[in-house]
């Protein structure tokens, strides 16, 4: 066994192929089928969302392929790609129990932006990743509002192991409000690891939205982590290959183990 060989980073498309086999993703959910929502956000921003079925929605009048799941009763993850030649990731956590919603809009850097070195980014005061994400918290018109979803530090210090399938196993260490470390224990990226920018949102008790933005291979991850059920569900978005010509947006779901907790 060659213990000195350096693992190679792979494309997001190749990662998706590995995650597609024997995976632990949730089945799509029909609980929102046929329902219409007006989503209100700060500064007067609104969106109209009609869920046709668990694989299709109409977003501001435009029909889109989508995926609707539910990791906890009454709370739904709705995900789709918007745009034509340039794709934008749109993910909703729609909390039908209290009339609250969180919207995550993400985009990938083009080839020129991706090619800016980490040194030049640091020297110019830029984020190390070119992947962008905007996170907005709002309410559902006509529904009784509860406590809004909000940033949290409740995951910080956790070291979790995620079994995406028998063949794909990762661990996450949630370091602080801005960064986490991932490490592939088994699977397509075995031996690889990195520390990347991330965001934590509390949705409900022991239920969190976790968003990460990778800097080496442009990647956006958006998942719900249910620490009661010890289950996750979400998606990964990136370029299919290294040529920036097409996109992939695939579902992920894992069984969770808590390995340990560090306090500072």
Secondary structure layout plus pairing:
Elements: H1 12-19, E1 35-40, E2 46-53, E3 56-59, E4 62-72, E5 75-82, E6 88-95, E7 100-107, H2 111-114, H3 118-123, E8 132-140, E9 150-151, E10 158-163, E11 169-174, E12 179-186, E13 193-204, E14 207-214, E15 219-226, E16 231-239, E17 247-261
Antiparallel strand pairs: 1-2, 1-8, 2-3, 3-4, 4-5, 5-6, 6-7, 7-8, 9-13, 10-11, 10-17, 11-12, 12-13, 13-14, 14-15, 15-16, 16-17
Report on the structure:
The protein has an eight-stranded antiparallel β-barrel with strand order 1-2-3-4-5-6-7-8. Strands 10-11-12-13-14-15-16-17 form an eight-stranded antiparallel β-barrel. The longest helix has 8 residues. The protein is 7% helix and 52% strand. It has one domain. By secondary structure, it is mostly beta strands. It has three helices and 17 strands. The termini are far apart. β2 and β3 form a beta hairpin.
- Strand numbers in spatial order across the main sheet: 1-2-3-4-5-6-7-8
Distance between the termini: 38 Å
Q: What would the average pLDDT be, to the nearest integer? A: 96
Number of DSSP strands?
Answer: 17
Percent range of helical residues: under 10%
SSE ordering: HEEEEEEEHHEEEEEEEEEE
Largest sheet: 8 strands, antiparallel, barrel
The number of helical runs is 3
InterPro entries: Calycin (IPR012674), MoaF_C (IPR035348), MoaF_N (IPR024724)
Domain MoaF C-terminal: 149-261
Keywords: Plasmid
Protein name: Molybdenum cofactor biosynthesis protein F
